[in-house]
Specification:
The complex is a heterodimer.
Chain A: E1 11-19, H1 22-30, H2 32-35, E2 44-46, E3 53-57, H3 60-64, E4 70-80, E5 84-91, H4 95-100, E6 103-111, E7 116-124, H5 129-135, H6 147-161
Antiparallel strand pairs in A: 1-7, 2-3, 3-4, 4-5, 5-6, 6-7
Chain B: H1 2-11, H2 14-25, H3 31-36, H4 42-54, E1 58-63, E2 66-71, H5 74-105
Antiparallel strand pairs in B: 1-2
Classes of the chains: A alpha+beta, B mainly alpha.
Chain lengths: 173, 106
């Protein structure tokens, strides 16, 4: 693309305040029993060490609709529980997005006052304009979900109100 | 809820909605870039940006030597999910009931 726009133009930043501990939020991002309860509803599979593999599995509903077993792949770049997780992220479910290659995703978790924790997601979409549209919610009308704002809204609801599925109370924080 | 109040107040101003539209068109702008599209003093723009930041609609991040402003749509999404879905859901379920009733009798 012959564009003079800076890297900032293809970075998206999302933040949300959640009444939960940093540990609860960390678990909700990295543990499959949590990731299957919000957002796209697939299980996450993390090896939480620099260089460790990441796989975002598709949900049963997505597989029923013809999706492959793995939706997203990538590698962990930095894992500092429960404060910071940096990883690469490539959508492999769709050929065009798979061809765009790996993007960089950072989760920052910072504890605030009154039991409220701030979660910030920074997603850098260099050379991945299609994935950027998907994650901004721009493909929601095609049934592709509402992207990060939708994921984070459902994560907040899950952690603040409890899940419809009975989960391990020791993880609730 | 206090957080929702801040969002509604922040949105109840055309200049601030204009700033969000600027960031929607191209995200990650410096204060100078935001100013350049408005006939307003730097101080006036800063005040509006501050209100948007306090409502969580704009997030500031350093990028090298510059401070950039990003649109954060999550608070709007939260209002949508909590309030708007609540009312549209009733319409949807009314339609579903109607369809059910029609199929029962049909």
């Amino acid at each position: 693309m012959n564009s003079t726009s800076s890297a900032s133009a293809i970075t998206q930043v999302y933040s949300v305040y959640i009444k939960a501990t940093p540990e609860a939020i960390w678990d909700a991002i990295t543990k499959p029993e949590w990731t299957e309860q919000y957002g796209y509803g697939g299980k996450a599979d993390y090896d939480l060490h620099p260089g460790g593999a990441y796989r975002g599995l598709t949900s049963a509903a997505m597989r029923q609709a013809g999706a492959p077993e793995i939706g997203v792949d990538g590698a962990v770049l930095d894992a500092d529980p429960p404060r910071r997780l940096v990883q690469t992220f490539r959508m492999v479910m769709d050929e065009a997005m798979a061809a765009e290659g790996f993007t960089r995703l950072t989760y920052e978790i910072s504890e605030g006052r009154g039991g409220v924790t701030k979660l910030t997601v920074i997603h850098e979409f260099e050379n991945a304009p299609t994935l950027a549209v998907l994650m901004s919610g721009g493909m929601a009308d095609q049934g592709a979900g509402g992207g990060w704002s939708w994921i984070l809204s459902s994560l907040k609801t899950l952690l603040e109100t409890g899940s419809p599925i009975d989960s391990d109370p020791t993880n609730m924080g | 809820m206090a957080a929702d109040d801040d969002v509604f107040k922040a949105l109840a101003d055309p200049t601030r909605r204009g700033l969000l539209d600027q960031l929607f068109a191209r995200d990650g702008r410096s204060l100078r870039e935001l100013e350049s599209e408005l006939a307003m003093t730097r101080f006036g723009v800063m005040k509006h940006v501050r209100v948007l930041e306090e409502a969580g609609l704009v997030v500031r991040r350093r990028s090298g030597r510059r401070t950039l402003h990003f649109l954060n749509p999550v608070p709007i999404r939260l209002i949508h999910d909590r309030w708007i879905d609540k009312y549209t859901e009733r319409q949807a379920s009314a339609l579903a009931n109607l369809k059910h009733d029609l199929e029962e009798t049909g």
